[in-house]
Design goal:
With 109 residues, the protein is an alpha+beta fold. It is 38% helix and 28% strand. It has 4 helices and 5 strands.
Length: 109
């Protein structure tokens, strides 16, 4: 099983951050299906202030390209992503329209 870690910022607004967390306590079933159907076996998101950190554990069927293509073709995922964009803020290093950025592992015990 492979693990990927990604990061993204939120709008630095306590009210928006609270709303974002509330949405993630009741993620739409279609979104959960799009995640597990892509070969993601486990996903966790952590927050510090306005910084998010995501850990994904994926199986051999997962690929970022396939997930991106499936998401682009899924109206419910696009609806969710549009809604989440209200709360999210790209990192300065992101390309236009890019959200979550893949982190490089620099240490492992």
């Amino acid at each position: 099983m492979k693990r990927y870690c990604l990061t993204l910022d939120l709008q630095n607004d306590p009210k928006l951050i609270a709303e974002y967390e509330e949405w993630h306590r009741a993620v739409w079933p279609e979104i959960l299906e799009s995640i597990t159907g892509a070969g993601i076996d486990d996903m966790e998101i952590y927050r510090f202030a306005d910084r998010l950190f995501m850990i994904m554990e994926v199986n051999e069927t997962f690929s970022f390209n396939s997930k991106n293509n499936a998401d682009a073709a899924n109206a419910k995922v696009q609806e969710w992503e549009t809604l989440m964009w209200k709360y999210q803020k790209s990192l300065p290093q992101a390309k236009p329209g890019e959200k979550w950025l893949l982190l490089d592992r620099i240490f492992k015990l």
